[in-house]
Amino acid sequence: MAYRETEKMRQRKAMARQKIVDCTYACVSDGGFRSARITRIAALADVATGTIYRHFESREDLFAEVFRLATQREVDKVAEALATEGDVTARLEHALRQFAERAIRGPVMAWSLIAEPVDPKVEEERLKYRRAYAALFEGAIREGIQNQCIPDQDASQSSTCLVGAIAESLVGPLSPAQADGNVSIAAEDKDRLVNSIIRFCMQGLTGARN
Length: 210
What we know:
Residues 14-74 form the HTH tetR-type domain. The chain is mainly α.
């Protein structure tokens, strides 16, 4: 008689898989993908290293899933900001601020998502992540053009420029300052950094000077 996996066994496997993902996420949040060694993840998840490879074909597949999880959380926050009531330019500014402020509050994870050297499978997810942001901004820009509160322009190109500008502006400040991966941004510099990024992005988008 062929073996049939029970529902209880499927649930147990799903829970084990989720714990592996959660522990990997914690490792990346703490020290980037470079610190997420399989032996460390296995120890945190209280499983054998071989168990990880029963759930994921490779380390790269595990990292790609964690990257998708982390980036979706960030994209969702920007989508929420753009979905609020009010003038589209104010919503765009709020969304850009969300992007920058969340990155600064979680600098290690933000660096990992934006600029840390990663495997090709994870890099593919990074490109999807940027496209997801750009698609959200493009929709808002088109709305602004239609409502005549944003000058007529190539909304697709402008949205890509926004993503590139804000991401590249954060690379330096978020870059690990020491070999152990610590990131240091002085408290007094945080507001100035965010305001400078937002001002540049909004002036480029609208042509208005505050």
